[in-house]
Design brief:
Mean pLDDT of chain A: 93
Number of helices of chain A: 0
Order of helices and strands of chain B: EEEEEEEEEEE
Largest interface: A-B, 28 and 23 residues
Oligomer: heterodimer
Number of helices of chain B: 0
Low-confidence stretches of chain B: none
Shape of chain B: globular
Mean pLDDT of chain B: 93
Distance between the termini of chain A: 36 Å
Strand content of chain B: over 45%
Strand content of chain A: over 45%
Radius of gyration of chain A: 13 Å
Helix content of chain A: under 10%
Number of strands of chain A: 11
Number of strands of chain B: 11
Chain lengths: 114, 112
């Protein structure tokens, strides 16, 4: 089954404790992206990657890091989480054929930083 | 900067009604537009994707239209059912980073 998976699905942590949210897709997609969703602000892009070893900032990259060492995986790293990073996070992937492709989303990771 | 607006923010209808959700965007230079459904606390399910060169797409009881020049899209849901209750999100794909810019959604409630 074609899918985007994220782990963990729920996480409660404390300020400053490094964490990683994993994202994996089994569709051989070139493009992957992270979004956060906040009440009243909607979904905003954090980082994206157009292929292995190619990553770039989205609209709200502060406090986050990403890496793309393999095509299928695109982890989101919070080196020193803060309470304002409490949010619902989504990973997405798609083929990259000039903008015509559907983006597929993972189930989301609900992060609470105390 | 692309901005996407969805009207209404919330809609409550009786079962069986046909309804229209609206989406407008400020920059017509887009690759495509996607409509998503989001159930409470869940992920996003892609419903329809309309390419910038297309006028509409249909899937079952759903029909989405796109008027790129006026920056508008509509999602038409025929014969609504309680199972259609969810938040519907419109997202525009544009720019070199292939970013989706989302509206804030329309919360639809279909009452039995």
């Amino acid at each position: 089954e074609a899918q985007v998976t994220q782990n963990p699905r729920y996480l409660i942590t404390v300020t400053g404790k490094k964490l990683t949210v994993t994202c994996s897709q089994n569709m051989n997609h070139e493009y992957m992206s992270w979004y956060r969703q906040d009440p009243g602000l909607g979904l905003r892009q954090i980082y994206y990657s157009m292929n292995v070893e190619v990553t770039d900032k989205g609209d709200v990259p502060e406090g986050y890091k990403v890496s793309r060492k393999e095509k299928r995986n695109f982890p989101l790293i919070l080196e020193s989480p803060s309470p304002n990073q409490t949010s619902l996070y989504f990973c997405a992937s798609s083929e990259w054929t000039g903008g015509s492709d559907t983006q597929y989303f993972g189930p989301g990771t609900r992060l609470t930083v105390l | 900067k692309q901005e996407v607006t969805q009207i209404p923010a919330a809609l409550s209808v009786p079962e069986g009604e046909n309804l229209v959700l609206n989406c407008s965007f400020t920059d017509s230079a887009i690759y495509n537009l996607q409509w998503f459904r989001q159930d409470p606390g869940k992920g996003l399910t892609s419903l329809l994707l309309i390419q910038s060169s297309q006028r509409e797409q249909t899937s079952g009881r759903l029909n989405a239209s796109l008027d790129k020049s006026s920056g508008r899209s509509t999602l038409y849901i025929a014969a609504s059912q309680p199972g259609d209750s969810a938040t519907y999100l419109c997202a525009v794909n544009g720019g070199s980073n292939y970013k989706l810019t989302f509206g804030k959604g329309t919360l639809l409630t279909v009452n039995p």
